[in-house]
What does this fold into?
Amino acid sequence: MRIAIPAQGRDLDKLMCERFGCSPYFLFCDSEDPQGTAVYRNNPSLIGTDGAGIVVAEYMASEHVELIIACKLGQNALKITRAVNISTYSAPQTMTPREAIVAWKEGNLVEFT
It folds into this structure.
């Protein structure tokens, strides 16, 4: 499953970024091999000013993401992810992307509602 996580840095062991739409980077990886498939991309919404969450949610759809793990997700971004069938789960900002993926696999994260 293709996962996307807002990240503060280009490392599975750096903390997740609290702000989905304004995250400097996004980690894209496969749920079965996060380390071997990890790709980090700059956030395309940082060049604009308004609607960052919407821009990023549309970007996730274009990247064929099936699951987003984030600390926070705004209502507009949530509407778009639901419309394109991307699952969204909440993780605390104190987690790294690696920890968040493990927590999701173990069923310890809550789905955004």
